[in-house]
Structure formats: structure tokens, C-alpha cells
Design the sequence.
């Protein structure tokens, strides 16, 4: 029944499906068989079943009242019998059942009163919910079932009053009845005079003790709210009556009868006549409930004071009650601790009721003696926080002050003055908000300048000023040391009060301007120190210094700074001293990288207001409160260079909109500013930083472009001269600024000219053979719209040709402007489009210039390409240097440029092929040595050895050079080395009579060293490096010799060579060899730096170039193997640790060193190509040889215990030596092969099996 039947019935009844589940026959069976069975059957019912049956009967009464009329007798008997049972649970469910019955059908007053009285007296906690439910069902029916009759007051009201008087000494009984009154307040309104006095007297008892429950305190607050609501209702009714009387001009309507109200109020009189068929007689079996009516079968008539009279509709609480209610609401607001959700809700409710009470009783006497006592006695050691009490006290005072401003201020000025210093000492912003609201209302009611302001109010003014002065001086005096958080709290609170009072009286802050400037200086220092700490903490060796973010600054400092700026922005311009100090602080803030974006926006708003106000008051230009043009330019320049990289997108948009609008008005608004000032702002600000010319907003960019368009001449030479020579692009050198230059060039095109194909372009025969295109277009009747398919099916040939003809006709009407406008926007949005457009346009513009104009621009072009600021864009693709160089390469005639400059731009700005093409063209014309050397250097950097050797063969002087390079190209290293050595000997002996250029002799030395490297002559190279102190050669050869001792003592401490991936690689080799496992971390850091350097070099190389990237790919493999070497050392160190037990030592060694074995196996498979140079094989296998030595040393004692591990290093080292010797033999170097086999293995004998690996 509990799980299936009752839920099913409840769902069906609620959805209007009653008779689909039950019908009259089923109802009769339920009543006869379950609810009214024979006594011998019902006696067998257990208590859980009785409860379920009571719920079933209640469900039927609730939804099937009209259908149960014939079963009323059985239903009331069933419920009444359970009311007399001892089991508490079934009795409470019986109350619910009987109340549903009494709500549905008329019953004798005696039964109704017995049930009502019993429910009023039942207040045990375990019965609370069901009793509440029963009362809530019965109460709305009482006015209908128990009308007042001749007594003018319902009997159920009298019994409620009687029980409240009799049981009022018991807190549970009193709470039970008061909760009933609160829930059904409209039923007790007409008789409220009998309850209000006791309700008011019980407020303190229920709600004020600290140990009272939350439920009791909420009930007390609701009782106070109920009295206030009843009084508001009474006042509303009286107002309606008075308005009606005034309109009808009937004076005698104010008689007591009318005011007292009709005893047959709508809330007390039944709304409909009871059906006589629903009345039931008292059955013999329905005995009175002994616990409900001690008097037996009859209920005596109760006479209460005033009960025989008429209910007092005009009843209102007296002044004492009003004061008690308001005092209670004040005290309970101060007693509650709003920490949890429930207590916060009660606190808010009490404050709202206090406001309502003061609205209902505006002249009530409000006493704050308890507040004074609470604030005077609170100490931090007590349970209630003094700051919380302070905030609550201020909230209460504000609520009273809103309704009784002048009366409250006059009566409580001492309390207001008393609460000031505790507020400042606690520095809580919640208390600060309430205090500011309080002081604003005080100062609004009694302005300081008013003659009627009392002396007490003036003293309050002075007290507030003294406290602000005291606290601001404490944070700005150097002798007083405060923690940053404490100082920020003091500043925040003082600024909060100052800001609030300045809204009422602007000149209130004038005495504090000096202190506020000092506060601003302190805040600027705090923000700068936070930025410095962030910078020091953020510096990591492995991080790129170019990647940075704005430091995080305390939000309190930011908020305080913005508040100070807003406070003094209007008042600081009145004194030149203030202006100077303010200017210094602003320049510091604008220059600091740590300044928050919101602070910068606040500064921008302030400077904008200063400038606009100055020109708005142009008549007072000579006064000290105006900025001169020099100051304006200084501020604008500082604003232009503000670092905005860390701005959010919304802050960036806001900054651009405000600053650019200000700058444009200064540069272009002729109605406000004179021509000289506009030109000064344009040249010193906009032209220097070009913020408007490259604005993201198209409309703003067009406005600034018109300024440039009017300033620069309208000829191609003037525009090109402005771009190349006149304009300084350093401020915008981090972006592709040629798109702005393109705008200037394209702006002087004749834009109204029609677009036509060039004479040499491809053309097709017209589709329409008969007649010109326009003749075919004017025939729309051939292709009506209705014939065109909307579902994508094919159309007729005529319709297709006609539509194409229409398209051609429209295209023929296009002019230059129709193409240029979108092309400019596309070039602004995409640097690649701007790059290609510049490369296309510049040669056309260049060829149209006169020869003298080209000559005039030649040197400025070289000067522009030589600018150092191009480095800022060298990592960008495309960049300005690339575009300029390619444009010059495609121009005719080409301006002559220094070959060193072309080489530098080519290798630093990724203009390799353009630079090579330029140098090659210069070689054909002039064949200069410098040009040839620059070209050879670019070939070398791109690893184009054949091109480089061919160039040297062409310009070399001696036959030895040509022969030696040919031998090098074919791999005859030994013969080439001999030839180059002989050439160097001849040069030193004077054979060539100083006819050989120095560059060629340097080539001999370079190639001799290269041949020695290919031949593995590490000792020879080491001796050469020691002789000439070339640390780069020593670093490269000593670790291969190997001579680690000399490297550690003489090379590593002294070496100062260029940062390259190879240097980091050798340093990692040395670290792992010297420190072993202890150097793994350092080696990995070096490898990470080497990878970064290699990636930078990779990015600098041409996009489609494999040969140039081969050395980097080989270095990447070496860097990877260094990391794998670190894993090998760690694996060996971890595997050699002693096991927890000796028995598992053997199995531990058998299963460990998995990483080591995998890496060694991978190294065998990952080798260079057989045709790669021997230097690549040397670099890779020589280091592997060092690691094999480490493995051999680690497992040298495992010969008996683990032979497999013992032979692991020997086996792989033998394979490594044999592989390298094999490669050198294949490369035609048998002597090198023998040397490797002789020296590299390092052991006296090699096993037969290892020799044949």
C-alpha cells in the first residue's frame, strides 16, 4: 500500500484521472472492507497498517469529496476512533484525516471545537509537522463552520485567546499558537487587539537571548513584522475610507459603526450556504475526547476581556508598543551574527521590517542606548566580532536615518560621532559603505556652509576630517612603518569615505590634496615593486626573454590608485605645484610595465578630460589651471608608448577608441584648435608613432589617412620620398609598415577610370555572336524568372548566356576605386597580400620616376635598409626588409647597393634567394671582390658547396686553389690537404710575390682544416688550435682525441665563442663525461638551449631548402642522443642500487636495464647514410664510443654473475668501431680505417666474434 497503491492513487487524482482508477463500487468496497470493517477485523490491524489506511482515507477525502457524501458516517467514525488511540503516530494522522473531513463537510460545532482545541494544545516536537498540516487544513474552514453569530467574535478566536493566556507561560505552547497566527494572519486581523499586546511583550523573550534557537528568533521577527503589516493594512483601509468620503463629501460617514467595520466581514462570513445534505448528526459512538475538553461533554462559554463587544477595526498599537517593536528590531539586528545563510536572511528581514516600521510609525521614538552599550563593551575576546557588530550598527543607523533624517541626527549626533573612530580602526569596507551612506545623509541634511547647521554637526565635520588626515598621514610618513596589506586597508577605507563625501561636497577633498598625492606616490611605488618582484621571479634561463607578461598586482592597490586619480583629477589643476607633482607621478605610471590596464585607462580618461576642459575654457588660457601645448604633447607621447601587449581585447578596444578619438580631435578638429597646434600634434605625436594610421577601426583609420593624404604631396616621387626618406618608421618597426606606404601610393591613382584588360592579356571570343552584349541583355522576356529552377537543376543555354552577359555588363562598369578599396583593406589585414602588392607596385612606380629622382632616392634607400630597427622584424614572415629588397631586385634600373648590406639582409631577414640573385647580377656587371666574397658566404651558409667552389674557381689566382677545390669536390681529402699545405708554404716563402689576395689564402687554411677533419687528424687539429688559441677548433677536436683533461683545465674556463647548437652540444658532452649521473640535469638544460638555438637557425633558413638544413638535422640527432645518454647513465645508476634482499639480486639484474638495452639496440639501427661525410659519422659514433666505455666500466665486475651484461658494452663498442672503420674504407680512406681500428677500441685484444660483427 505504501509503495504502490497510495502513490498510484495520488498521481491519478492529481492528473484528473480519478474514475479511470477507482469507481463508486471500489470506493464502497474500500469503505466497507477497510475503513469500517467489523470490530474483530479492525482489532487485528497493526499500527503501520492503520497509518496507511488513514492516509488512504485522507486521500479520498481530499480529491473525492462530492462522491463520498453517502459514506460520511463511516469516514468520521474511522477517523474519530483513531483520535482516541494511545499510539501517537496514528493519532496525528487521524487529526489530518478529521481536519480534511471537517473542511469538506459541515459538522456539529462541538466536534469542530474539540478537534481545534486539541490541536492548539498539542505542541510536542515529534508531532509538529502533522499538527501543523492539520491546522493549516482546518483554519481556512473555521470562519465557515463556526460563524461569529451574535457574539461579534468567533468562538475559535476566543478559545485561541484563552489557551494563549492559560498556556502562555510555556514557551512551546506560546510558539505553537504564535506560529499559527503568523501563518493565518488574515483570519486574526479583525480580532488583533486580543493578541497584539501579548505578541509585543513576547518579542524580547523569544528573539533576543543569545542562546535562543534560530526558529524562535525568526518567529519573533515574523511577529514584529505581522504587527507592522496589520498596522499598515489598517492605515490603508482608513486612507481608502477617507478618500471615498472626500470624494462624496459625506461627513457623517465617519461614525463608529462604519469605522468599526461590519461584523459580517468577508473573511469571517461563509462565502456560500452549506448544503444541508452535508450536515451530520453526532453519532452515539462519537464520544468526547477527554484530552481535549476537561469539562466533559459540554464546552463552557468563554468570556474574555472585550469578547462580548465588537471587534475593534480601529485598533492600533500605542506609542509604548511602537517603541518596543522598533527597539526589538534594532536589538535583534545587532544580536544576529550574519555568517550563515539562515542568519543572513533573518538579518536582512529584520532590517527590512525596521524600514517598514519607521514608514508606518514615522514619529516613533528611536532609542540607541543598546547600540552605545554594545559598541562600548565589545572586545575581540568575546564571541561576536567587534567589526561585525560595527557594520550591523551602521546598517541599523542608516535604516533609521533614511526615514527620520533630521530628527535622528539631532537626537543621536553623539552616537554618530562615537562610531567614527571604531570604523576607521577596523578598516572594514562593509562598515565603510554603511558609514559613507550615513555621513552622506548627515551632510546632505545639514550642509557645512548652511547658516542653520548646528554646532554639533560642524564638530562632526571636523572630526571626520581629523580622522582622515590622521590615517592618510600614517601611511605617507616615512618614519611610520606599516605592512603593505595594513597600509592598503587604511588607504582603501579613507578613500572610500573621501569619495563618498566628495559626491556631496566637491571641495571637501581640497585640504587632503597634498596627502592624496603622497598616497598616489606610495601606491605607484608599491605597484612598481610588485612588477620588479615579478620580473625577478619570472627570469628563467630556459625562458625566452622576449616572451613576457604583465605582472600581477594586488587588486587593492589598483582600486586605491584609480580612486585617488578620480578624486584629485578635477582639483589638482588649481595649483602649479600640484600639477608638477601630478605630472611626475603620471609619467612614472605610464612608463612602468607593471601598471595595470585599468589604471592606464583611468589616466587616459583624466588626461582627456584635462585637455578637453582646457580648450572648452579657452578664454582662460592664461590661467594656471590649463595645460600648455608642450604639456599636451608630452602626455600624448607618453600615452603613445604605453605597453599594451597584455591588455585584454576589451581593454585594448576601449583604449584605442578613447585615445585615437582624442588624438584625431587634436590633429584634425579645426573648430576647436588653431592650425599651429594641430600641426604640432600631428608631427610630434601621430607621425612619430602612427597610431591612427594603423588603427584597427576602418573609419578611424580613414580619418587619419586623410590627414596624411593632405600633408604629403600628390606625386609619386613625393609619396615615395616620404616613405623612404622623410618618415621615421622606428616606432612601428615591429609590424609590416609598408602597407601604410602602399595606401599613400595607391591613394593618388585616378580612381574614376574604368578597368580594362591589358593589351597583352588573353581574350576569348564573345559567347553571343549576334550583336553586342548590351543588345542581348535587353531581352528579359526570353528568360522569365518563373522558368529559373530553384532546386539547382540545369537551365537553358539562352538563360545561362544571358546571365553571363549581364555579369559582363556589370563588370564593364567597374572603376579603379571598386578594386582598390577592398584591396587596401585586404592588404591591411594580411601582411602577405601587402608584401606581394608592394613587390608588384614598387617596380612600376620606380620605372616611372625621372632619372634624377631615382638618383635622389638611391642613398635614402640604402640608409633605410641599413636601419638597425629591422632586427625587430627579422623573425616575422614576411618582413619589411624582404619586401624592400625584392622590390629593388625587380626594379630597373637597379640602384647600386653595398654587397655587405645585401648579404646581411639576406641572412638575417630570410631574403636568401633575393640577395643571391642581386649579388649574382652585380657579379655579372662588376665582378668585385667584396661582392664575390659576400656571395660565397651566402653559399656557405646555405651549404651549397658546389656553387661556392665554382665561384672560387672562377675568381681564384693560383692553380693550387682550383686543383685543391676540385679534389675536395671529388673526396680526395689527403691529396687536397697536401696541395693546400704546399700553397700555404709557397705563400710564406714569397713565391707568389704578394699577388694572392688574403681571402684566397684564408680559403687555403679553411680547406686544410676541413680536410684534417675529414681525415680524423684530431691531434694535429688540437696542436693547431693550441698554437693559434682557436677555442672553437679546440672544442671540436679535443673531445674526439679524446683529451678531456686539457679541455677541462684550459679550454672550458677560457672559451668565448659564439652561441651555437654545436657549442651547447659539446658542453653537454663534457658535462656528462665529467660529472656522470650528477650532471644529467645540467646536460638536459644545455640540450634544451641547443634545441632552441637550432630551431632559431632552422627558422632563418629558406622555406624550400633541404640541403641547407642537413647540418641542423644531424645536430638534432646528436642532441637526441645526448638525452638518451642521460637515460643510460640514470638507468645504470638505478640498476646498480642494492636490492632489498640478496635472494632477488640476480633476478633484479636480469630484468633491469631495459632502457639501456633498448637505446643501445636503437643506436645500431639509427646511423647516418653511407654516403654522408665521415665527419658526420665521427661526430655521432665517437660520442657513442664514450658511452660504451661507461657501460663497460659499470658492468666490468659482472663477468661471473651476469656474463650477458658484462659483454654488453664490449659487443656494442666493437660493432661501433668496426662500423666507423668500414665507412671510412668505403670512402677511400684506408689509412683512417687502420687508425680507427688501432686506437679507437682501446683494448689490447678483440674477441674473434666481435671482429666479425
Sequence:
Amino acid at each position: 500500500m505504501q509503495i504502490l497503491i497510495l502513490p498510484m492513487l495520488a498521481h491519478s487524482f492529481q492528473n484528473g484521472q480519478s474514475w479511470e482508477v477507482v469507481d463508486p463500487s471500489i470506493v464502497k468496497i474500500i469503505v466497507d472492507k477497510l475503513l469500517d470493517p467489523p470490530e474483530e477485523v479492525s482489532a487485528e490491524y497493526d499500527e503501520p497498517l492503520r497509518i496507511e489506511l488513514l492516509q488512504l482515507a485522507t486521500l479520498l477525502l481530499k480529491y473525492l469529496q462530492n462522491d463520498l457524501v453517502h459514506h460520511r458516517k463511516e469516514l468520521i467514525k474511522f477517523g474519530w476512533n483513531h483520535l482516541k488511540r494511545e499510539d501517537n503516530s496514528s493519532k496525528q494522522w487521524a487529526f489530518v484525516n478529521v481536519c480534511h473531513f471537517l473542511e469538506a463537510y459541515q459538522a456539529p460545532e462541538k466536534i469542530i471545537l474539540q478537534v481545534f482545541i486539541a490541536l492548539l494544545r498539542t505542541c510536542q516536537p515529534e508531532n509538529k509537522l502533522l499538527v501543523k498540516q492539520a491546522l493549516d487544513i482546518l483554519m481556512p474552514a473555521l470562519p465557515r463552520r463556526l460563524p461569529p453569530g451574535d457574539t461579534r467574535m468567533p468562538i475559535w478566536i476566543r478559545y485561541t485567546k484563552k489557551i494563549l493566556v492559560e498556556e502562555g507561560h510555556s514557551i512551546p505552547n506560546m510558539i505553537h499558537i504564535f506560529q499559527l497566527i503568523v501563518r493565518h494572519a488574515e483570519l486574526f486581523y479583525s480580532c488583533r487587539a486580543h493578541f497584539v499586546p501579548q505578541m509585543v511583550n513576547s518579542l524580547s523573550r523569544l528573539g533576543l537571548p543569545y542562546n535562543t534557537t534560530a526558529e524562535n528568533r525568526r518567529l519573533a521577527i515574523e511577529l514584529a513584522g505581522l504587527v507592522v503589516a496589520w498596522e499598515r493594512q489598517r492605515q490603508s483601509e482608513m486612507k481608502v475610507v477617507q478618500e471615498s468620503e472626500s470624494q462624496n463629501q459625506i461627513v457623517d460617514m465617519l461614525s463608529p459603526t462604519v469605522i468599526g467595520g461590519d461584523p459580517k466581514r468577508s473573511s469571517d462570513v461563509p462565502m456560500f450556504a452549506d448544503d444541508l445534505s452535508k450536515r451530520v448528526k453526532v453519532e452515539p459512538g462519537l464520544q468526547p475526547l477527554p484530552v481535549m475538553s476537561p469539562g466533559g461533554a459540554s464546552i463552557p462559554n468563554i468570556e474574555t476581556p472585550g469578547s462580548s463587544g465588537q471587534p475593534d477595526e480601529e485598533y492600533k498599537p500605542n506609542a509604548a508598543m511602537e517603541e518596543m517593536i522598533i527597539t526589538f528590531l534594532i536589538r535583534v539586528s545587532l544580536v544576529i551574527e550574519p555568517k550563515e545563510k539562515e542568519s543572513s536572511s533573518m538579518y536582512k528581514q529584520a532590517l527590512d521590517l525596521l524600514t517598514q516600521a519607521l514608514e508606518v510609525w514615522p514619529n516613533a521614538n528611536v532609542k540607541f542606548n543598546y547600540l552605545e552599550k554594545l559598541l562600548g563593551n565589545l572586545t575581540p575576546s568575546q564571541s561576536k566580532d567587534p567589526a561585525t557588530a560595527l557594520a550591523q550598527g551602521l546598517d541599523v543607523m542608516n535604516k533609521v536615518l533614511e526615514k527620520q533624517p533630521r530628527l535622528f541626527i539631532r537626537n543621536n549626533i553623539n552616537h554618530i560621532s562615537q562610531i567614527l573612530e571604531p570604523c576607521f580602526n577596523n578598516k572594514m569596507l562593509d562598515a565603510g559603505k554603511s558609514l559613507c551612506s550615513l555621513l552622506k545623509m548627515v551632510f546632505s541634511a545639514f550642509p557645512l556652509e548652511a547658516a542653520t547647521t548646528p554646532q554639533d554637526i560642524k564638530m562632526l565635520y571636523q572630526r571626520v576630517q581629523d580622522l582622515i588626515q590622521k590615517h592618510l598621514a600614517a601611511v605617507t610618513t616615512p618614519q611610520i612603518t606599516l605592512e603593505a596589506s595594513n597600509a592598503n586597508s587604511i588607504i582603501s577605507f579613507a578613500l572610500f569615505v573621501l569619495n563618498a563625501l566628495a559626491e556631496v561636497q566637491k571641495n571637501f577633498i581640497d585640504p587632503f590634496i597634498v596627502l592624496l598625492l603622497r598616497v598616489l606616490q606610495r601606491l605607484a611605488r608599491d605597484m612598481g615593486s610588485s612588477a620588479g618582484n615579478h620580473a625577478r621571479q619570472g627570469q628563467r634561463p630556459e625562458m625566452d626573454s622576449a616572451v613576457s607578461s604583465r605582472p600581477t598586482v594586488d587588486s587593492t592597490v589598483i582600486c586605491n590608485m584609480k580612486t585617488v586619480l578620480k578624486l584629485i583629477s578635477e582639483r589638482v589643476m588649481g595649483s602649479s605645484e600640484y600639477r608638477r607633482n601630478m605630472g611626475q607621478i603620471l609619467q612614472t605610471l605610464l612608463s612602468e610595465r607593471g601598471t595595470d590596464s585599468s589604471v592606464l585607462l583611468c589616466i587616459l580618461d583624466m588626461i582627456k578630460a584635462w585637455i578637453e576642459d582646457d580648450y572648452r575654457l579657452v578664454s582662460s588660457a592664461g590661467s594656471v589651471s590649463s595645460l600648455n601645448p608642450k604639456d599636451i604633447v608630452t602626455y600624448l607621447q607618453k600615452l603613445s608608448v604605453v605597453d599594451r601587449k597584455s591588455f585584454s581585447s576589451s581593454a585594448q578596444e576601449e583604449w584605442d577608441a578613447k585615445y585615437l578619438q582624442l588624438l584625431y580631435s587634436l590633429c584634425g578638429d579645426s573648430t576647436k584648435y588653431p592650425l599651429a597646434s594641430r600641426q604640432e600634434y600631428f608631427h610630434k605625436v601621430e607621425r612619430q608613432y602612427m597610431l591612427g594610421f594603423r588603427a584597427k577601426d576602418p573609419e578611424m583609420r580613414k580619418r587619419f589617412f586623410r590627414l596624411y593624404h593632405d600633408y604629403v604631396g600628390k606625386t609619386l616621387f613625393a609619396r615615395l620620398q616620404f616613405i623612404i626618406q622623410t618618415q621615421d618608421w622606428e616606432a612601428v618597426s615591429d609590424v609590416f609598415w609598408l602597407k601604410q606606404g602602399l595606401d599613400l601610393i595607391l591613394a593618388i591613382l585616378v580612381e574614376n577610370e574604368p578597368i580594362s584588360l591589358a593589351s597583352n592579356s588573353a581574350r576569348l571570343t564573345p559567347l553571343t555572336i549576334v550583336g553586342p552584349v548590351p543588345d542581348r541583355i535587353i531581352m528579359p522576356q526570353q528568360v522569365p524568372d518563373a522558368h529559373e529552377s530553384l532546386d539547382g537543376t540545369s537551365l537553358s543555354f539562352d538563360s545561362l548566356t544571358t546571365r553571363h552577359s549581364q555579369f559582363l555588363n556589370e563588370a564593364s562598369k567597374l572603376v579603379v576605386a571598386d578594386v582598390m578599396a577592398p584591396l587596401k583593406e585586404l592588404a591591411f589585414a594580411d601582411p602577405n597580400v601587402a608584401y606581394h602588392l608592394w613587390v608588384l607596385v614598387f617596380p612600376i612606380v620606380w620605372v616611372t620616376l625621372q632619372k634624377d629622382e631615382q638618383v635622389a632616392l638611391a642613398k635614402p634607400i640604402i640608409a633605410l635598409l641599413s636601419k638597425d630597427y629591422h632586427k625587430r622584424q627579422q623573425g616575422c614572415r614576411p618582413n619589411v626588409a624582404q619586401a624592400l629588397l625584392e622590390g629593388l631586385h625587380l626594379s630597373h634600373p637597379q640602384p647600386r647597393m653595398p654587397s655587405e648590406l645585401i648579404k646581411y639582409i639576406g641572412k638575417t631577414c630570410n631574403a636568401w634567394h633575393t640577395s643571391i640573385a642581386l649579388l649574382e647580377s652585380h657579379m655579372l656587371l662588376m665582378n668585385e671582390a667584396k661582392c664575390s666574397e659576400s656571395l660565397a658566404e651566402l653559399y656557405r651558409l646555405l651549404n651549397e658547396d658546389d656553387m661556392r667552389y665554382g665561384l672560387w674557381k672562377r675568381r681564384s689566382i693560383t692553380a693550387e686553389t682550383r686543383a685543391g677545390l676540385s679534389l675536395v669536390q671529388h673526396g680526395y681529402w689527403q691529396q687536397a690537404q697536401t696541395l693546400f699545405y704546399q700553397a700555404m708554404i709557397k705563400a710564406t716563402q714569397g713565391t707568389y710575390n704578394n699577388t694572392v689576395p688574403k681571402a684566397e689564402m684564408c680559403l687555403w687554411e679553411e680547406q686544410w682544416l676541413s680536410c684534417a677533419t675529414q681525415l680524423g687528424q684530431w691531434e694535429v687539429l688540437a696542436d693547431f688550435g693550441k698554437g693559434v688559441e682557436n677555442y672553437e677548433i679546440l672544442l671540436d677536436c679535443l673531445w674526439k682525441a679524446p683529451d678531456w683533461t686539457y679541455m677541462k683545465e684550459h679550454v672550458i674556463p677560457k672559451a668565448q665563442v659564439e652561441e651555437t647548437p654545436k657549442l651547447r652540444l659539446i658542453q653537454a658532452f663534457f658535462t656528462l663525461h665529467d660529472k656522470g649521473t650528477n650532471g644529467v640535469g645540467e646536460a638536459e638544460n644545455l640540450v634544451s638551449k641547443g634545441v632552441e638555438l637550432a630551431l632559431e637557425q632552422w627558422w632563418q633558413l629558406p622555406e624550400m631548402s633541404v640541403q641547407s638544413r642537413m647540418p641542423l638535422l644531424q645536430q638534432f640527432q646528436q642532441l637526441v642522443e645526448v638525452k638518451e645518454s642521460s637515460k643510460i647513465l640514470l638507468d645504470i645508476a638505478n640498476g646498480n642500487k642494492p636490492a632489498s634482499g640478496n635472494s632477488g639480486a640476480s633476478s633484479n639484474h636480469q630484468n633491469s636495464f631495459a632502457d639501456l638495452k633498448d637505446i643501445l639496440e636503437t643506436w645500431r639501427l639509427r646511423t647516418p647514410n653511407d654516403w654522408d661525410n665521415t665527419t658526420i659519422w665521427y661526430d655521432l659514433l665517437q660520442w657513442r664510443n664514450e658511452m660504451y666505455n661507461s657501460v663497460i666500466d659499470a658492468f666490468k665486475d659482472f663477468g661471473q654473475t651476469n656474463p650477458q651484461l658484462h659483454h654488453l658494452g664490449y659487443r656494442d663498442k666493437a660493432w661501433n668501431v668496426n662500423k666507423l672503420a668500414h665507412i671510412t674504407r668505403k670512402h677511400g680512406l684506408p689509412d683512417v680505417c687502420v687508425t680507427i681500428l688501432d686506437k679507437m677500441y682501446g683494448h689490447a685484444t678483440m674477441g674473434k666474434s666481435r671482429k666479425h660483427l
Q: What stands out?
A: The mean pLDDT is 80.
